[in-house]
Design brief:
This protein is α+β, with helices and mostly antiparallel strands and 194 residues long. The protein is built from 4 helices and 10 strands; from the N terminus they run ααααββββββββββ. The strands form 2 sheets. It has a 6-stranded antiparallel sheet, with no helix packed on it. Strands 4-9-6-7 form a 4-stranded antiparallel sheet. The radius of gyration is 16 Å and the shape is globular.
């Protein structure tokens, strides 16, 4: 499936599931109503920062916007073939995100990221409706990662565990691309967005 159409369908499904109008989601996320409408129609390729705002406002992890829920749910496959793994490229930074997790239900999601040299992506998280934990394992290259006021430089083989409840910045300070694996899990939270 085309990744832009997959994102479009998921944003609309999640918005409908929460009973939110376009105006309500716009107010909750800080993303313009017309932008959300374009995204839901598959006419816009949103940046990672915009997708993060929408995911936060919808109370899900960013990875949930890349899940294909159209497959029959009676016996979802425990295997994710490489040809079926959704791949998305951030139009802002050029980072490439591949969803590795199979459609079978699991509390764990895996994502393979290739991050271009010299690029930076900032996520200004708003309160989530889930308690999301993430680990980043560097496969190759170097990344500077900031979580709130803390900052780390990760090299190949290093792992960072974090909770996605603060401002997060990913930056590749080098002239070579970086690649890392993200493992994340989300638990429902009692917090609700206003």
């Amino acid at each position: 499936m085309d990744i832009t159409l997959l994102i479009a369908r998921r944003v609309r499904e999640l918005r409908d599931a929460d009973g939110l109008s376009l105006d309500a989601l716009a107010a909750r996320s800080g993303v313009g109503r017309s932008t959300i409408s374009l995204i839901e129609r598959g006419e816009s390729s949103p940046t990672a920062a915009v997708l993060d705002k929408l995911a936060s406002a919808l109370g899900v992890a960013l990875a949930a916007l890349f899940e294909d829920k159209s497959a029959p749910q009676d016996t979802p496959s425990p295997v994710a073939r490489v040809a079926d793994q959704p791949v998305w490229t951030d139009p802002g930074s050029g980072y490439i995100r591949r969803s590795l997790s199979p459609p079978a239900p699991s509390p764990l999601q895996l994502v393979d990221v290739v991050f271009p040299a010299g690029q930076r992506v900032a996520y200004d998280s708003v309160p989530h409706n889930a308690d999301i934990h993430q680990q980043v394992w560097m496969i190759e290259g170097t990344m500077d990662i900031g979580v709130g006021e803390q900052h780390w430089r990760l090299e190949a083989g290093d792992t960072l565990a974090m909770r996605l409840d603060r401002h997060i910045v990913y930056h590749n300070p080098t002239r070579k691309q970086a690649r890392y694996l993200v493992a994340l899990t989300a638990q429902p939270s009692s917090r609700r967005n206003a």
